[in-house]
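DM from R.C. (forwarded with permission)

"hey, sorry to bug you on a friday — could you get me a structure for this? deadline for the figure draft is monday and I only need the backbone to look sensible"
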Amino acid sequence: MSPDVDDPAVPSRTGPRPDAPARSRPGLTLLVVGSSAFLASLDLFIVNIAFPVLRVDFGANLVGLSWVLSGYTVVFAACLAPAGRLADRVGRKRLFVIGVALFAVGSAACAAAPSVGMLVAARVVQAIGAALVTPTGLALLLTAFPAQRRAFAVGVWAALGAAAGALGPPLGGLLVVASWRWVFLVNLPVCVVVLVVAPRLLRESRDASGALPDLLGALALLGGVGALAYALVEAPTAGWTDGPVLAAFVVAAALFVVLAARSRRHPAAIVDPTMLRIPTLSLSSVAMLVFSAAFAAMVFGNVMFLTGLWRDSTVVAGLEMAPGPAMVVVVAMLGSRLVQRIGPGPTAVMGALSYATGITVWVLRMTAEPDFATTMLPGQLLTGLGIGLAMPALTGVVGAVLPPDRWGAGSSMVNTTRQIGMVLGTAVIVAIYDASGGPTTLTAFRHGWTFLLCCAGLTIVCGLAVARRAGRDHDAAAQRFTGPVAAAPGRA
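My reply, with the result:
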């Protein structure tokens, strides 16, 4: 998905591209691709608000239900990079349509799930579909728009993902009133329309010259993150020295070693070690991981706080959670412009500081007595401001330090890191609540907010380091990827 492949004005390494998407209907392409990206993001947020109802319907505990979120996110993270590389080989339109179909099948299976186990399994199918849709949709979008309008198209595409976060809680709260199953059924009409329109609207594009993705590396990533999340969730209840918990930690460590070994040798590695040698990119990946962990933990924790401690209905809780994501949508555009003016490092620091200030408001002011306007709301606006600044900044590091022909691979690495962070954040917050007696006391939530503050502090440290190194690393990366290393990207 590099410029020499996606830009029809530049010859492909495989020769002319008569099958490039038509330029005549870019607006419709944006609508089709954007609606699919919206659904993929929506299902990260709309399910949170259904947790209280799911606990009652299935009689499940918080640990088991956490996999309804983590199962989706960990599979999405593991499949994202290989999906993009596979699409380059077999066809982006083909995998996009397959991804939408899988997402629709997974959504229907979720709605019909008779147990938590079946619901988690159906969420895995959804995640595979979402992982196929995301990189293929972006590539199809880039080829549909002329170079001078691509920034606008990508901005709209990203804003739709942010809007899904804003609409998820209130929409989910309204749908749950009828049944939690409507949280998943709402996806089907959009999927059907896309499946009817996409084959006629989109035209195939591919780049068959690249290597096949490292599927074994993807499986190692999937198993490693899943085993680590399991160990973190189960340890507070079973004990840190419990046999299955220790085994999960050992399996996670072994699979991460396998992933590292394959990444050093495979020409289409899931994690490119050459990129990790660029300090700015590795630092921003660490920052993205911990900040995404804080974000996912905050969303999950707010649902538990509003419906558990304050005992709000799902409808009221969904509406109360909307201001924070709405602020993200508004600020995201400002964050992108700020990155261009002052750089990704300082912008990420500003975002993390605002986020930490919002969490501090909750620590100092939130009580067991409901008082949304003067306690929850100010913290939501500040955390939303912080997320809207930090997320685009940490993603924008890719464009700041990598040459254009590495933007696709760099973006995949950062996005995979973000998904892994969300898995671990959910696992850690569940473990914290479980160790504190469950999400029924203010003490448990204070412990959770402390974790969020630690994540924000580490993001600030990484952001300051990025600000110091960005210029030097840009020059070093340009030399690294135009020298001998670029000729053999799979070599360490």
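R.C.: lifesaver. The two ends are 22 Å apart (CA to CA).
me: no worries. The mean pLDDT is 82.
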